[in-house]
Queue: 3 jobs
Job 1
Amino acid sequence: MNDTRTLFSLNALPRLTRQFLSGMCGIALCLGVVSTSQVHAADELAANAINAIGDFTVFRTDGIQEQLEGKGSLPLYEGDRVKTGKGSQALMEFTNGVQLALNEDTDFLILSRWEQSKGFTRVLRLATGEVWVKTMGGPKPLEIETPVATAAVKQTEFNLKVEPDGQTTLTVVEGIVEFGTAFGTCPIRTSTISYGNRGKKCTKPAPTNVSPNVAWTQGIRQ
Amino acid sequence: MNQQLRLTTPLLIGVALFTLANLTGCSALMPTPKPGGLNTRVYTANESSNTVTVLDGDNYKVMGDIDTLNYGAHDLALSRDGKQLWVTNLANGRVSVIDTDSLKTIASIYTGTRAHVVALTNNNKHAWVANITDNTISIIDTSIYRILGTIPVGKGPMGIAFSRDGKYAYVSSQDKMVNVIDTTAHQVIKQIPVGPNPHFLTLGPDGRIWGTNTGSNDIYVIDTTTNEIAGTVEVGPAPQQIAFALKGTIGPNAYVTVTGLNKVVVVNATSPTLSIREQIDVGEEPNGIWANAVGTQIYVGHTKSNNVMVVDTGTSQILATLPVGRKPIRVVASR
């Protein structure tokens, strides 16, 4: 009547066994905490696409394709590939507060890097096209890879354009961007432009009018 | 109260022990110091267990396994100072970086679909990773783990090796070619026709690039001054990987794992023309192979029996057989 003992009750076991199991549980608990450190976050929300003009398609890792038309909220995950068509644009917000606009004919992958000392860094692999990026609400580590260079930022606003041959043009609207190729790194500051070409160090920053690099985003950001 | 104490004390001891083990970097994996600076630590990439097994190559002991925190550990590259071990993970396209002091994975970088092999540039500043499905080589800065460029190459890049002077990188690809890349321009400047499914590539002690045609039964060497094939020799079906070692006064010799024969075939590496010197019986499906720094022992991984055999190259006798993780593809040893 009062027998509430279950098969896995600790009280049903000898004292030494209970102590041993208790100790092992402590170790297992710690191991569990450590081993849950994932080095890729495929199922974690990375961003939301919130506006699209024209053709904007997301290619999921399992082959599923989804589209956004007009304003809305389309979740984006690690490993997703996003593309805009001719005359199309899109706007997305990353979960870490980075806002990103895609110009026409843009194609990139959403990735990440994990380091024991730093945790996750959001990485975007821009195959071709043009993006405008603005970090909001404090420093946000973000890197954009192109076929010939990588732009690493924390708190800035910039525009990055990749030609079909990989040539990359970086224009910094505000802040500082660490722009590097395999042949050297150049810090690029507010209102300057630099080019990355295959087999060469990025060019020295030159003053430029940044207005056109922001103007194309006005429609999609409204 | 006493009952609670009896239960919670061992729990706290367990937590303390685990914390201590973590802080000290897993002392069970620490190497045994050996005078003369010739300690040989051997690593295997175990594709099906997603781990790297660490072996004491001098005392023939298993030191432990390291979780790569990724899937499909396939190839390995060890930095010259032995501090960093780079691991490709075929299944999820990422590269793991292992700190060989703490024996832990410290970084994970996505390179491309089916990341196959990794090679470090001669100055160790960059890691080059071949992505089979993307037909690209990713170039990673080894100090900040950032990808700094991507080089398009032939279909299905499989193996990478650098010339002695570092001016050229050689990339074998599934279109039966070896792509020659000018490392100062990151451009493919030549394609050298080789055989079916060219796979492994390595720099030989003669300064030539040695490669296997895994889809065939031969190996080849490339003269890096002309970037032409300088010789080939048939070694048996499905040759896999190559290491260089000595047999007493004879050598250096190329030791080739030949999966179809379950043998290591020894090829003369001292003359311009290639010839077979001997064959050594090993286990089933030998694949990864590496020699110790002084060239007196080779370590042969077997993908079927999940072990590494230590072979004395002086007598061609097997000295030890050590269990490793499932499907060891690659074996490397400290210099």
Job 2
Amino acid sequence: MKALRKYLDKIKPNFEEGGKLHWLYSTYDAFETFLFVPNTTSKSGVHIHDARDSKRTMIIVILALVPALLIGMYNVGLQHYLAIGHDVTLLTKFFYGFLAVLPQIVVSYVVGLGIEFAMAQMKKEEVAEGFLVSGMLIPMIVPVDTPLWMIAVATAFAVIFAKEVFGGTGYNIFNVALITRAFLFFSYPSKMSGDQVWVRTADTFGVGKGTVIDGFSGATPLGQIATTEAGGFSDFAFQGITGQPLSISDMFFGFIPGSVGEVSTIAILLGAVILIATGVGSWKTMLSVFIGGLVAVLLVNSFAQNAIMEMPVYYHFLLGGFAFGAVFMATDPVTSTRTEKGKWIYGFLIGLIAVAIRVFNPGYPEGMMLAILFMNAFAPLIDFYVIDANIKRRMRRATVVKQ
Amino acid sequence: MALSSKTKAVLLGPLNKNNPVIVQVLGICSALAVTSKLEPSIVMAIAVTMVTAFGNVIISLLRKTIPNRIRIIVQLVVVAALVTIVSEVLKAFAYDVNKQLSVFVGLIVTNCILMGRLEAFALGNGPWPSFLDGIGNGLGYGWILVVVGFFRELLGSGTLLGYQVVPQALYDAGYENNGLMMLAPMAILLVACIIWIHRSKNRELQEETN
């Protein structure tokens, strides 16, 4: 640490006013404040100062994502070796998944941060830290087989058009990671849905070579139930990729085909505990998403016509991106509502719409992304009316006093 | 023929600093709807240019005889007649493109650029300047359509005017056409990008920020 500090101090004059590399000051500042506490914290004075700045907030979110990421990586390997019918150790499976996901993380960070640094340099501002979380979320919400160049294009699109044009971190209307996914979803539908993309069957850097066994099907559980011929839920059974039945515990621990981050509900719950305990994520938003989903499912169950309409509520919560979206996407402090009452309405409608899209539109087996993006657009309106109602209430009180 | 500075402004202004699409933000609806391929974009550009130019001339000739109260109806009749002619010509000589453009040929009648030019220019100027104004505005609208259509067809279908441009080798290497380019939201983003570049080159057009 000391050596690092010394080195940074040594090269600092180059970046200050008049230095040779002054035009790169934003880049230098970003690294310095990332590695050490920003110089701008208060050193004296009696006023209370919050210990958190946004870099620390971001790092807590990343920590909360780590369990889901690790189990997701393991699951990538697990599904792969199931598909090629090899029996290998737990570590080999994890190693395979690690190799498959790591390039995506690297590409997402390099492209996104590259644009952020370039933009900050151009505007001569500090580099904002918003992309630290988005860059980690992007590889976790796309299929594991998404080509790297697509991730690069989509990340660049999202950072420029969903964030920088609105004024950078903190001003974006839509969640940047979800815009990346939406761009991929509408641009390259064949790589983002169906039953070919959720399980990586090819080898990764020569690891895990093998041919896919007979009877392999990579459809996700939600994809299966959206396209099933079964007349009712009782005639339907979720299947793993080799045709083996899937149990509730498989879904809870995350041993099902799906995006890296979304599969393991227990890891997401662990992340939720971290977010709530540190006060970074709002428990109100998370809880109300689940309440909204519950209400929608109970409603749909009451006049069920087919298998997906009859699907009990716990499957909705365990499968697909429902839990992941509720914990990590809906709670994004920038794009969600800011008022406490607004958070209840916002979360409730996300859960409601997500279930509605899942159940009523067979073309979109997963509705979480569209539901959150849709409500992102309405968040300012909800805030406006919550504040407006509060003002009106207080105005009434004021008039009573005047009389 | 050397053009006087006023004629030049009438003809060339709409191509750049007085552009109907990217400065006045008119005619956006058809600009988004027909630009998924380059060919219909070009045909639409020509059709609108023709209708604007001749509509301007006719209204300019009639401008002293049109009673003020019913001028909109007269303008509509003239434009509708011209659009019908254009539509029939397209059906006769370019049936496929006409089918691609579908209702948008007929909807030229309601194109804001047209009514705007008739109201704002043709009613107060002679036939020759009105003709140039119509040509200028039609081309100003047209070049935006062509640029948007170019990028949408190139990135969305990998073709230009129906010919394969993106080489097969690239597809074999894993490249894929961008489906979002074929949807209207991408057209509005492309128009926005053109506006972005245009505004950054012409700072006097930028709205003042508070």
Job 3
Amino acid sequence: MTKSIVSIRNLHKSYGKVPVLNDFSLDVYPNEVVVVIGPSGTGKSTLLRCINYLTPFDSGEIHLDGQKIDPRKTNLNHVRQQIGMVFQDFNLFNHMSAFHNVAVGLVKVKRVNRGEARSRALDELERVGMLQYKDQYPAELSGGQKQRVAIARALAMNPKIMLFDEPTSALDPELIEEVLAVMKSLAAAGMTMVVVSHEMSFAREAADRIVFMDQGAIAEMGSPSELFANPHKERTRQFLSKLGYRENERKDESDG
Amino acid sequence: MSIFDDRAAEVLQSLPYLLQGLGVTISVTLLALLLGGLIGLMGALARVYGAAPLRAAAAAYSRTIRSLPLLVILFFLYFLGSDIYEMSVFTSMVLALGIHTSAYQEGIFRAGIQSIERGQSEAAAAIGMTPFQNFFTIVLPQALRRCIPYWGNEAAIVLKDSSLAYVLGLTELMRRGQYVISRTHQAFLTYLIIGLIYLILTLVLTRGLSYMEKRVKIPG
């Protein structure tokens, strides 16, 4: 059996008395793209944030590349360098140009010399199609452009896996495609990814596995063709039909 | 007795003497601002990032200092200082003014730090920055920019409060003014000139800071 890049085992997390993750387990394998879908408030974002320990959890284990992460022994800053994360609200560093947003991690965290940081940052900006905007500041960029810089910033750390937390939810409809295109090209290049998103075009085209989450656990899981064509559970079916409806609605809007 | 008599000329001739007090006024102001800035920044850090006891201690410090008149702090430190060892009037004034402004600067810095969106700190953590790197690379540079206008107000207040040092006999601008008055009996004209000097100093300070604010403004 192939070794997983990230192995999530029996994760439990509650906010006060409200359980968010309920014995959640998932293995993500090299080069795999896992898309997590599910109703809001079902723990999708919390799941991603637990993987890189941005949110502490109550019990369970995360293994990265076969190594168990023990926050008391493992340096979490070192762990996080290996796990790229892209946020819904971009979270770019507002006082830095696009270039510096990408380069700062290389210089401050990886401590590579300035020349190398420069060429690597420019490479990553080119990879997301933002090279010509390298000197722009976040306030001068559109949402889609910001998100592409945020992806480049995460990629610059050369992560083993990329986590995407609803990367297109804060975008105007006409800007979504440019971000999805970057994500699809990453997937095609073999990046291991866990993506929380309801962009069905991305899921159909790029996902190896769809995880349908409900009430903090995996309700159903399968390849996109299996899950979309023939969902086993009523809950999944209902949810997918709602998504389909919303997808059609958006098409209507952009037509009109 | 008219406001201006033949001794008015004497006041104008005393201008160089008055201006010699500028050095003391400016150095008291700058040193107090620096001291207050350091204490204020540490207090803000304690109140934003500190554990509960540290937060409480920093808040108590701030509240206490804010509720004391500068003059009380000044006399307290002066008499305490001269009891323990020969603390100079200059040192007493810098300490008193520095401690006084630290409580207000703490509030300014704290507001600046808290105004930076949490998401940026999360993004910094997500690329593996330590909390220390995050603070100095991401949070502080943006927080300080936002603080400039409010800090400028505080700096102008400190500049003018430095005149209180005259009560201890420190020969800054105000004290020298008093000497000129006792020689010339031209209180109105002397205070007018002193007022103008403070006006010019304050203008230079606030103009300088707003120039700086524009220089470091984040594009967009």
